[in-house]
Amino acid sequence: KIIAVSESTANDIVNQFPVSPDKVTVIYQSCDPSYFEKITEEKRTEVRVRYDLPNKYLMYVGSMTERKNLLSSVKAMALIPVSERLPLVVIGARTAYTDIVVDYAMTKGLDKWLIIANSVSNNDMPAVYQGAHIFLYTSLYEGFGIPVLEALVSGVPVVTSNVSALPEAAGPNSRLVDPTGVEDIARSIIEITRDEDLRSEMISKGRRY
């Protein structure tokens, strides 16, 4: 028997290897129970001050590799009017790709909108998630996408890719976009930011999903 973490991964296994679909069973992952706990406003403020985070921000979590496609989210920020633009807090391991993203942001005058948080502890991650306005995850490929699940459980609207397993992880009430479609990403951020009713609906239905 082969256990796959998503239907997308199950399909990949069958397509890439001489395996019968009958041998593959999908069992979805969960995330750490700490993400299900409601963090107090006092604790969220304490964590925000500890890591010098802004009061309102977009968020990305994950290793900074080319596959994760963080650059598309940064490019989308340039298309958002400055009066509505929110800083993007990035949490994850630095790689050579990080320099590409940072260099692009500096070239386009977006460096003050890009915050790469340092050494955020696992204990503080639920508070950082719950303080985010929108979660961005425009990865080019995922076998599942646990950060998306962590965001949904934390009560944060999700904008993610319409490829691989991400539609399964995010559910029908997240905003699914072409990960290379910078205009799509920007439009989704703007619409969710402007429409509080839409944002509230995404949060409640995302949690339920």
How do the strands and helices of this protein lay out in sequence?
Blueprint: E1 2-4, H1 7-16, E2 24-26, H2 41-50, E3 58-61, H3 70-77, E4 88-91, H4 96-107, E5 114-116, H5 125-130, E6 134-137, H6 146-153, E7 158-161, H7 166-170, E8 175-177, H8 182-194, H9 196-208
Parallel strand pairs: 1-2, 3-4, 3-6, 4-5, 6-7, 7-8
Helix pairs in contact: 3-4, 3-8
Supply the helix-strand structural class.
alpha/beta
Total strand count, please?
8
Q: Please give the order of strands in the largest beta sheet.
A: 5-4-3-6-7-8
User: Beta fraction of the residues?
Assistant: 5-15%
Note the total helix count.
9
Written description of the protein model:
It is a single chain. The protein has a six-stranded parallel beta sheet, sandwiched between helices. The two termini are 27 Å apart. The protein has helices at residues 7-16, 41-50, 70-77, 96-107, 125-130, 146-153, 166-170, 182-194, 196-208; strands at residues 2-4, 24-26, 58-61, 88-91, 114-116, 134-137, 158-161, 175-177. With 209 residues, it is of the alpha/beta class.
